[in-house]
Amino acid sequence: MDDEARAQVPRREFQGARFTDAVDEVAREEPLEIRIAGVPIAVTMRTPGHDEELVRGFLVTERVVDGPAQIASVRPCSDAAEGNVVQVVLHVPVDLARLRRNFYASSSCGVCGKATLAGAMACAAPLSDGVSVSAEMLYALPARLRAAQEVFAATGGLHAAGLFSASGEAMVVREDVGRHNAVDKVVGSGARGVVLMVSGRISFEIAQKALAARVPAVAGVSAPSSLAIGLAERAGIALIGFLRGSSFNLYADASRIAGNP
After folding, report:
1. 104 and 130 together in one domain
2. Cβ pair 127, 234 in contact under 8 A
3. pLDDT digits over 184-241, tens only?
4. How far lies 92's CA from each of 33, 72, 88, in Å?
């Protein structure tokens, strides 16, 4: 599980006005396609490992089956790309057409990280705007995001996303129980900015949303996933993780950090 779940990536660490190159370990993120009787019914993003348990839990919690006893077997497909497809056999009949309507989202050919990245890039071209931001401006963003989290301050139970200008001004900040929903609210506001800041980790879907919205930098107070880094590298998006105090880790597109050689 440990080897499957982790990936090593290069990063550039910024502390104050100093920066050093290093290697970091990040959580691996890959799509998993679930098939029943050979029919794809769902694709979910996950950290590889314990896939059988994941699929069995998914089938139960999404009410595809009434309980674990209705699942005959869950096995990897031998012809699947990078082991990212599983075949399910059930003891009971299900409406496969209904399941596809409810769950399935196209995952590109092969259902692997490379295919997922290619699919994202096919939907939106890389950014080539030449925008850069300063490290000093980035250091201020976590506090500015937190200051705008009124519901979080009262409840402690919401994620936040904010869009900031090149000078660090908050264009819009939105809160939601779902991190991805908060990002969608920011994008849907119509505001324009250069840094998308989120209150937690940075997944592939958040990087994908930034690409679709044409935002050249994504920052978070926690870690990015391997697939988010891969997309940012291809898309020309600066990906900034562990943005805390006067330090952060840069995982993609160093050219967007002003003064970075």
Report:
1. no
2. no
3. 999 999 999 999 999 999 999 999 999 999 999 999 999 999 999 999 999 999 999 9
4. 20, 9, 12
User: What is the span of the domain harbouring residue 36?
Assistant: 30-122
pLDDT tens string 38-88: 999 988 889 898 999 989 999 998 899 999 999 999 999 876 556 789 999
**Sequence letter at residue 116:** T
The CATH number covering residue 48 comes to: 3.10.20.10
Q: What is the DSSP string of the chain?
A: -HHHHEEEEEEEEEETTEEEEEEEEEE--EEEEEEETTEEEEEEEE-SS-HHHHHHHHHHHTTSSSSGGGEEEEEE-TTSGGG-EEEEEESS---HHHHHHHH-----TTSSHHHHHHHHHHHSPPP-----B-HHHHHTHHHHHHHT-HHHHHHS--EEEEEE-TT--EEEEEEESSHHHHHHHHHHTT---SEEEESS-B-HHHHHHHHHHT-SEEEESSPBBHHHHHHHHHHT-EEEEEEETTEEEEEE-GGGBTT--
Number of domains in the chain: 2
Nearest to 11 by CA among 30, 25, 28: 25
The pTM for the full model equals 0.85
Place of tokens 């399910």: 88
CA 40 to chain centre: 22
Candidates 77, 109, 112, 123; catalytic one? 109
Residue 21 in domain: no
Which of 244, 241, 245, 240 lies closest to 257, judged by CA? 240
Whether 109 is catalytic is: yes
Amino acid at 199: S
